[in-house]
Amino acid sequence: MKAALVTGGARGIGLATAKGLLAEGWQVAILDRDSEALEAAGKEVAGLTLINADVSRPEDVERAVAEITAAFGRLDGLVNNAGVADFGPIRETTFERWRRVMETNLDGPFLMTQAFTDLLAADGGGAVVNITSISGLRASTLRVAYGTSKAALAQLTLQQAAELGEIGIRVNAVAPGPVATKLAMAVHSPEIIAAYHDALPLNRYGKEEEIAAAINFLLSEKASFITGQVLAADGGFEATGIGLP
Ligand code: NAD
């Protein structure tokens, strides 16, 4: 049975992705640094393997490889979904805030994919999906750290696809538009929420399951000739050329 690992899987888009994969017959592990949320997810959803780890810490990532090897002995799908958001203008973004964003959003997917490459390449290859954002597609006055981290993750996706294709690993990204998760609601002001509703062609926030469906498609055999793409699941944001609120 195919095995997948979803980082930041204890809630939000990650947990919806894990549920979707379980329903499609995968064996699934979720990795999260929030042990309470991880435990709650384990109680809510039967059959998940739980890994309490921080994707920005190399020693945690190495332990995750050992735990996945012990649990499944293989890995076919890796979803680099763990992320943090911190909105603020340049002069208010301290180096600590900048580093906090980069460590999870950029260092994490680099470390995870590097550490799991051998396992993904074994047994016929595998697929990686990195979760970027529409915040990485345009500049805005609030997203110096978050937007830069996601634009860099899109480029990392292309680098990984270019290099790992020959050993059978496809690497793509999904760039979600706004979804009302804990992460988004901590940084979306009422003005931002209203502006997204007005400006998006679909006039609404996305649902966690709608982002999960795009991720799970890219992991699946249906996407077997697709690599190096950033798929926007964004209610039409990218198509219209509107600015970020
Ligand atoms: P969320 O806050 O609901 O879930 C994120 C999870 O990641 C949490 O469980 C958190 O504990 C975990 N996490 C954070 N840092 C971690 C680390 N260093 N190691 C391990 N786990 C860590 O957020 P979400 O909205 O579901 O976000 C999922 C992804 O989607 C993120 O990468 C986010 O940037 C991206 N995204 C979200 C939106 C949105 O509007 N919600 C839009 C675009 C992109």
Explain how this protein is built.
One of its GO terms (biological process) is monocarboxylic acid metabolic process. Belongs to the short-chain dehydrogenases/reductases (SDR) family. This is 3-oxoacyl-ACP reductase. α4 packs parallel to α5 (144-164). β4, α4 (95-121) and β5 form a beta-alpha-beta unit. With 245 residues, the chain is α/β, with parallel strands linked by helices. The mean pLDDT is 97. The chain has helices spanning 12-23, 35-44, 58-71, 95-121, 144-164, 182-187, 190-199, 208-219, 237-240; strands at 3-7, 27-32, 49-52, 77-80, 126-131, 169-176, 230-233. A seven-stranded parallel β-sheet has the order 3-2-1-4-5-6-7, sandwiched between helices. Residues 7-8, 10-14, 32-34, 37, 54-56, 81-85, 104, 108, 131, 133, 176, 178-179, 181-184 line the site of nicotinamide-adenine-dinucleotide.
Tally the structural domains: 1
Low-confidence blocks of residues? none
Instruction: Report the order of strands and helices.
Output: EHEHEHEHEHEHHHEH
What would CATH call the homologous superfamily? NAD(P)-binding Rossmann-like Domain
Strand content: 15-25%
Please work out how many helical segments DSSP would assign.
Answer: 9
Shape label? globular
Helix proportion range: 40-55%
CATH class: Alpha Beta
Number of strands: 7
InterPro entries: KR_dom (IPR057326), NAD(P)-bd_dom_sf (IPR036291), Sc_DH/Rdtase_CS (IPR020904), SDR (IPR050259), SDR_fam (IPR002347)
Domain Ketoreductase: 2-196
Family: Belongs to the short-chain dehydrogenases/reductases (SDR) family.
Protein name: 3-oxoacyl-ACP reductase
